[in-house]
Amino acid sequence: MTEYFERPKNIEINWSALASRGFLTPDNVNYQLSEEYRAIKRPLINNALNGKVKGINRSNLILITSSLPNEGKTYSAINLAVSIASERDKNVLLIDADIPKPSVARTLDIHYKYGLTDYLDGSIERFSDSILQTNLKDLSIVCSGKHHSYSTELFASNRMQQLVNELTEAYSDRIIIIDSAPLLATTQGEVLASMAGQIVLVVEAEQTPQEVVLESIRRLKSNDVVLLLLNKSRNNVDINYYGYGQYGNV
Ligand SMILES: Nc1ncnc2c1ncn2[C@@H]1O[C@H](COP(=O)(O)OP(=O)(O)O)[C@@H](O)[C@H]1O
Ligand SMILES: [Mg+2]
Asked: What is the CA(73)–ligand 2 centre distance, in A?
């Protein structure tokens, strides 16, 4: 993929191409999928906007993770971002923080060179220079940035802490969705999870062994809100059935 240095003013997401690959689009042509994401996003938005009352720190920072690769994190992160941004008065920033296997840019056909790691290692000074506005008014995107062997350290840095504080405090009405690396295959996911107010643990239905899911839940035990999203269930031929559960004290 050829990457460009100059930040494009507007990213044109090709919705029909996405729809043909089974993704949600703002026009809700896939009614069933839209309904599923309505159910998924409702408690997340509710927690995000009422974090103070509910005692959830950084409630507007939602981390999408899974136990293993390929369970559907990026698929779910993009769908959730599109679904929330399509609502009136809801602003979404989707950040690709899966540095070992970034795929938001590839999925949405974005070719801008800079992203999160470039800000964290100081290659770009202002975080705003990494933010890309899309053709969906309330959706902006930050790509992963260049590959980094020390991304766990970058995520554990003061610069990351500061960034997370600024993003969650300055824009309390904005929902930040982070697409992360899997929890059990890497260390980045766990570091990010420690910063997020809400976690969505994507589970590939009928694939991921139960003990693997339980191990992930155990690693997330210090997080107040962990929601399970059952992806690719075979109960439905369209593999679009989602289950949803909440684990408080596992
Ligand atoms: N429910 C689903 N319906 C259709 N395609 C899906 C679904 N979930 C995942 N996929 C596809 O499966 C592949 C792996 O999913 P992806 O979201 O990239 O996994 P991860 O980010 O967890 O590694 C991608 O091609 C994605 O588009
Ligand atoms: Mg991914």
From this structure: 5
DSSP one-letter code for 112: B
- Best probe residue, ligand 1, of 75, 177, 180, 207 (max atoms within 8 Å of C-beta): 75
Residue 28's φ and ψ, nearest 5 degrees, are 55, 35
> What Cα–Cα distance (Å) separates residue 144 from each residue in 28, 75, 179?
28, 16, 9
The Cα–Cα gap between 224 and 210 comes to 21
Ligand 1 proximal residues by C-beta, below 6 Å: 22, 66, 69-75, 103, 231-232, 239-240
Provide mean pLDDT across the span 170-178.
91
Distance from Cα 103 to the centre of ligand 1, integer Å: 10
CA distances from 28 to 37, 109, 116 (A): 11, 21, 30
Write down the domain spans for the chain.
15-247
The number of angstroms, rounded, from the C-alpha of 6 to the middle of its chain's C-alpha atoms is 25
* Segment 118-128, tens digit of pLDDT: 999 999 999 99
- Give the percent of the chain with pLDDT over 90: 86
Position in ligand 1 atom list of the atom nearest CA 101: 23
- Which of the ligands is closest to the CA of residue 33? 1
Contact 202, 76 (CB under 8 A): yes
> Does domain 15-247 fall into CATH 2.60.120.620?
no
Question: Which ligand is located closest to the Cα atom of residue 97?
Answer: 2
